[in-house]
Amino acid sequence: MIRNYIKTMWRSLTRNKGYSFLNIGGLAIGIACASLIFLWVEDEVNFDSVNTKKDRLYIVRENQKYDTYVFTHSSTPGLMGPAMKAELPGIANTARASEGGTSLLFSKGDKSVFASGKYADPAIFSMFTLPFVEGNAVSAFSQLHSLVITEKTAIKFFGTDKGVIGKSIRVDNKQDYTVSGVIKNFPANSSLQVEWFMPYKIYFDQSPWLKEWGNQSTITYAELKPGVDPETVNKQLYNYIQKRVPTTLGHSFLFSMNDWHLYDDFKDGKKTGGGQIEYVHLFTIIAWIILFIACINFMNLATARSEKRAREVGVRKVLGAGKKLLIFQFIGEAIFMAFISAIFAVIIIMLVLPAFNILVQKQLVPGFGNPYHLVALLFIAITCGIIAGSYPSLYLSSFNPVSVLKGIKMKDSGASYIRKGLVVLQFTASIVLIISTIIVYQQIQHVKDRKLGFNKDNLVEMDLQGDMAKNYNPIKQEFLSTGYVSNVALADHGIIYNGNNTSGLTWASKPAGSQVLVSQRYVTPEFMETSGLKILEGRNLTMADTNTPLRMVITESMAKLMGKGSAVGKTVHGEGDTTSAIVVGVVNDYVYGDMYGKPDPVMFWSVPPRHATIMYVRLKSQNDVEKSLANLQAVLKKYNPAYPFDYRFVDDQFNQMFKSEMLVSKLSRVFASLAIIISCLGLFGLAAYTAERRTKEIGIRKVLGASVPGLAGLLSMEFLQLVVLSCLVAFPVAYWAMHNWLKTYQYRIAINWWVFALAGIAAVIIAIVTISFQSIKAAMMNPVKSLRSE
């Protein structure tokens, strides 16, 4: 019997090649799309899973409450880690690390390369899962100037990752370090991404502010003992810093590694439940929607072709086949086709995965040797088969054998309504995706086109390394004399990122108990003109402003905080009134840090070149960029020959800040297009079926004088009405979804009516193009042939 079913299935497939292609092709595309999305989702949800202690590892965070919001950050005092380990019984271990990534120059012979890493306590090797290829965690930092590198870094430094233990390499042309360990490369889905580790003691000794509880500029990781409740430790941490510094505003807490990547979104000091997980949920839904659309194609085409198999069902019933057996047969056929689709989907995945990896900036692998992946693919195929074959099997098995064998046509009204409803669902989902794609793109462009308050274009940023600070003045003069540079300046932090900040400030009109977070920037006087900031009142900084009494320039938002009248001439006092500064100028507000939000006020202080860390160079816009950079390189080679030329453009840094949003935008475009393609495959098949069923009607109409355009319009109208109905359903759904998405951004667009009109018109045009081929083909048929074949 099984053999007979297989023969029947195969004959049905080969006898109706066009419909089989549409069914299998649509389902294959759907399964391939969903599988790619699920590979991405798997990579996201398994972030940091390489760490065996993941459930017990935490980063120490702090909430600081100000007048208008709560600021959540990961900066902690340099003394906090060891103190926690010694004083809190629930803590098994702690490790401190420098913030961000520190880029240093490594030189071996004539070869010099930059590499980014962290200063860290040796405990980091036992807390995180960092397998040593050479060396071991115990002796890794037994010497002060020790260096632990990854396998890739070993190849980068020495050309090999074998036998490098004990080799020395010069760092920043100042000190030789000895390689004491080589660890495996970090997986791409790891929150910790570094090329090297050095002992935290070096960083601690070089930074005297780390020895003060009032300064926070260190990352602290904590490992809890097995079975310890993190909330118990959080109660002990709440006022932990206040016991040392009573005036501090911050309250510390533990933030689990399980949440670092997916749930790293805070509002008013509490987790919102959002973050990267929102994109995981979004694309998981999209994956199932695409699969559902592909399944709808199968249902529609299978029920539409039911008349072709009516006699088969009648004969089987007469010969004793029951309804359950027929349902089993047709669902079996659907699952069989789903398996064929899954095989083609695997081929599609293998072909498009390289391009998909470039799109999502990951190194995903299909992993067909992984039993979980095979089970997942099997589950998707069976699920699609059952869903796609459920209604057709019930519909076909319900045929009356007497009516069928007598040649009485089956009433198609019920099935017709269901097919129409499924088409509406298909296009509703597709139109929602189109609208969402447009709005996501608009929102990203809206923020990217936002007036930042400074000019990010043609602005080059370079780390101040080697002799660049000592030779700043001659370097600046030679840059300007090249004719390719309009200005040069120094600063202590990148202009588009958050810098140092403080809340311990007072001024004459400040209300008692008010707490305001103010960013501090140390710059040379040329910074305002180089960056494009405008002096609105007073004057710019000068190098003389570094002398007592200190003078500073503030942004207009801070000037407003200082009360009515001009802020110029007013005095700002530091915490404890130990220092004070006179405001000499006001510049415009500018956007930094959170490109969607409203930035904090900023104070600018004049700084000698030796205290700066970054050089900014404003290139003249009319000159060739490559020639401009070549001139910069030539000057730096003269004054800083020990360091290779390394630079970055601020507009590239700006674009990088929208990495997640850009990914959502690109993926939305891709999957919205694929959803439309899959929907159109089904629509194409239904149009062909409709034209076939109405062949004689068309012949009669042509004989009676109907024109080809009139007939094509008649055949198309039924489907266009369904597409219009889909628009009416999709518009409110899309508005609700995108309105809720936009609410998460402070700086956002308004949803315009024309977006819905554009999506609706696009859907109608796509439907017309899809249907028109079959409609025109049917309308142009010779009526003599169609009427003769009775």
How is this structure best described in words?
This protein has 3 domains: 185 residues, no CATH class; 207 residues, no CATH class; 198 residues, no CATH class. It has 23 helices and 25 strands. The strands form 5 sheets. Strands 17, 18, 19, 20, 21, 22 and 23 form a 7-stranded mixed β-sheet that branches. The chain has a 6-stranded mixed β-barrel with strand order 4-5-10-7-9-8. Strands 1, 2, 3, 11 and 12 form a 5-stranded antiparallel β-sheet that branches. Strand 4 and strand 5 form a beta hairpin. The chain starts with a helix and ends with a helix.
Concise summary:
This protein is α+β, with helices and mostly antiparallel strands and 790 residues long. Helix 19 packs parallel to helix 22 and helix 21 (708-742) runs antiparallel to helix 22 (753-779).
What keyword list fits this structure?
6-stranded mixed barrel; 3 domains; globular; 790 residues; single chain; alpha+beta; 17% strand
Helix content: 40-55%
- N/C terminus separation: 36 Å
Helix- and strand-based class?
alpha+beta
Fraction of residues in β-strands: 15-25%
Instruction: Characterize the main sheet.
Output: 7 strands, mixed
Cα Rg: 34 Å
Helix segment tally? 23
Low-confidence stretches: none
Q: Supply the number of structural domains.
A: 3
The backbone outline, from C-alpha atoms, is globular
Mean pLDDT metric: 84
Report the strand count. Answer: 25
